[in-house]
Amino acid sequence: MDRIRRNERLATMTRILSASPNRIFTLSHFGDLFGAAKSTLSEDIDILRDVVRYFQLGQLDTVTGAAGGVRFRPTVARRDALTFVQGLCARLSAPGRVLPGGFLYMADVLSMPDLVEKMGDILAGQYYAAEPDFVLTMETKGIPVALMAAKALGVPLVIARRDSKVYEGPAVNINYLSGSAGRIETMSLSRRAVREGQRALIVDDFMKAGGTAKGMTDMMREFAVTVVGLCVVMATREPEKKRVEGVRALMVMEDVDDAHDSAHIRPAAWLEEAE
User: Fold this and answer.
1) Domain positions in the chain
2) Which of 88, 95, 153, 263 is most buried per CB count within 10 Å?
3) Which one, of 135, 154, 140, lies nearest residue 106 by Cα?
């Protein structure tokens, strides 16, 4: 095999690291791949770290210890996150988006891979230190953003369902009070999906009173799983007191203009405060 040049190593390492976020790759792995010494690879990593930092592409960390190596974590600078979310707010504030019941039409936004990937990266960036073992969401509209957050965190996605599926095996079923509909609904989760003692990050698309989020929190209690965070794409301002606390939303729906079927939407306070 011909000798691999530095620019070829850098391009390949960038692809490998970015394709598997938050996964640790040992220097031995790259050494076997490129036939290069660890000292040479350490220099390559220093170059990549400077590039990632300069262009604010995320963070490249060196992990010490027996199982150490290097990992890439996608992050979005707070100012860039605010600009991105402001663009979403303008888009979702357009006339005709408010549906009966005060819901907002978001299906087109939640089906665009580039948008949901950016949302997932922003949310995941707030929970790297919490080290969740999986991301939990409720079917179905929250799945795209939750999947992208799970990808950035390098963990599985677990989906709670409204009824159990035969192909998922035995399941735990709980009843919860839907905050939007004000009625009792059922939530189901396969017993094989999670294990006792794990840590969960809950991600959903829309929160009004927080009934579904409370249901997912209660479901995790049934499995003896610790919830390390709860975040949503959109939360309504009213009711101000939700059924759960500590929710991190990207956007807040302030009020509705019934005449134009539009809503006043702004970035969440935690994004604006950083600016």
Assistant:
1) 6-73, 78-274
2) 153
3) 140
H-run or E-run covering 263: strand 262-267
Three-state DSSP state, 68: coil
* Residues near 269 by beta carbon (within 8 Å), at least 6 away in sequence: 252
CB 21 within 8 A of CB 42: no
Kind plus residue range of the DSSP H or E element containing 109: none
Which residues, including other chains, have CB under 8 Å from residue 135's CB and lie 6 or more apart?
Answer: 146, 147, 149, 150, 153, 155, 156, 157, 158, 200, 201, 202, 203
CATH class of 78-274: alpha beta
For residue 267, what are its two tokens?
């970035």
CB 234 within 8 A of CB 251: yes
Helix (H, G, I), strand (E, B) or coil at 8: helix
Of 1.10.10.10, 3.30.1060.10, 3.40.50.300, 1.10.3720.10, which CATH number belongs to 6-73? 1.10.10.10
- Short-list 247, 180, 245, 236, CA closest to 212: 180
Q: Look at the chain and count its residues.
A: 275
pLDDT value at residue 9: 96
> pLDDT digit string (tens) for 107-152?
999 999 999 999 999 999 999 999 999 999 999 899 999 999 999 9
Sign of the dihedral defined by the CA atoms of residues 169, 173, 179, 183, in that order:
positive
Tell me the average pLDDT across 186-193.
95
Helical pair 113-124 and 143-153, crossing angle rounded to 10 deg: 50
Per-residue pLDDT reduced to its tens digit, 53-93: 999 999 999 998 877 899 999 999 999 999 999 999 999 99
Rounded to whole angstroms, how far apart are CA atoms 72 and 136?
23
**Average pLDDT in the chain:** 93
**Rounded-to-integer distance, Cα 200 and Cα 248, Å:** 15
